[in-house]
Amino acid sequence: MSEKCEAMSFCPVYKIYAHLSSSEAGRHLLNARKEILLAVKSLIEKEVERMERMKVKKSDKAKKVKIS
After folding, report:
1. How far is residue 31's CA from residue 20's CA, in Å, rounded to a whole number?
2. In this structure, which of 6, 26, 38, 60 has its CB flanked by the most CB atoms within 10 Å?
3. By C-alpha distance, which of 56, 59, 19 is closest to 9?
4. CA atoms within 13 A on the CB side of 29
5. Residue 68 belongs to a domain
6. pLDDT of the residue at 44
7. Structural domain boundaries, residue 19
8. Considering only CA atoms, which of 39, 38, 57, 59 is closest in space to residue 49?
9. Whole-angstrom Cα distance, residue 29 to residue 64?
10. pLDDT tens digits for 14-68?
């Protein structure tokens, strides 16, 4: 078990997490994770809507019809 703790102390991601979680700013960021996820979700949904509108606009263009 102590080997796992020693390995984590060398991990750069763990070091950043440990530093953030011990600071006031880090605690605010960790508590804001839901808000951050909701913001990212909103950005993704907005981009999907934009892509759907572009798809509709392209399909609305006049099409050539061959008359025989």
Report:
1. 12
2. 26
3. 19
4. 11
5. no
6. 95
7. 2-58
8. 57
9. 56
10. 777 777 777 887 778 777 888 888 999 999 999 999 999 888 777 666 677 788 7
**Contact by Cβ (8 Å): 29, 20:** yes
Structure token digits, residue 19: 């530093």
For position 9, what pLDDT does the model report? 65
Per-residue pLDDT, 64? 74
Residue 58 burial (CB count, 10 A): 8
* Helices assigned H by DSSP within 1-68: 2-10, 12-22, 24-31, 33-59
pTM over 0.70: no
Measured CA to CA, the distance from residue 35 to residue 9 in angstroms comes to 29
Q: With respect to residue 67, please indicate whether it lies within any of the assigned structural domains.
A: no
